[in-house]
Write a sequence for this structure.
């Protein structure tokens, strides 16, 4: 099992955003304390891959995760989902014991 994965739909969305912003197609996933369930996911474009980052590549897009956040999201898949409620990046995290209704925070 890979440490972290990026779906094709997430890769396509990151590529489109990066192109519009004239940035490299690198998505950083990090985990912060807080949110309604204890931890929350943070997404942002990165300018480069840090030396200690763990990476996953899909369709020419790189997902990067720092070692501390990786402990909380190891084995996860980052997806991009569009629904009536809106469009967002979502993390399918096998380590999360519970989450919140909005899907942006979790507990372990």
């Amino acid at each position: 099992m890979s440490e972290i994965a990026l779906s094709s739909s997430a890769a396509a969305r990151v590529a489109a955003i990066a192109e519009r912003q004239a940035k490299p197609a690198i998505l950083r996933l990090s985990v912060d304390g807080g949110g309604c369930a204890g931890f929350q996911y943070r997404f942002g474009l990165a300018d480069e891959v840090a030396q200690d980052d763990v990476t996953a590549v899909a369709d020419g897009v790189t997902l990067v995760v720092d070692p501390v956040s990786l402990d909380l999201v190891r084995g996860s898949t980052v997806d991009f989902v569009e629904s009536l409620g809106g469009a967002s990046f979502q993390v399918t995290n096998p380590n999360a014991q519970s989450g919140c209704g909005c899907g942006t925070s979790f507990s372990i």
Remarks:
- The first strand starts at residue 4 and ends at 6.
- The chain has one domain: 4-107.
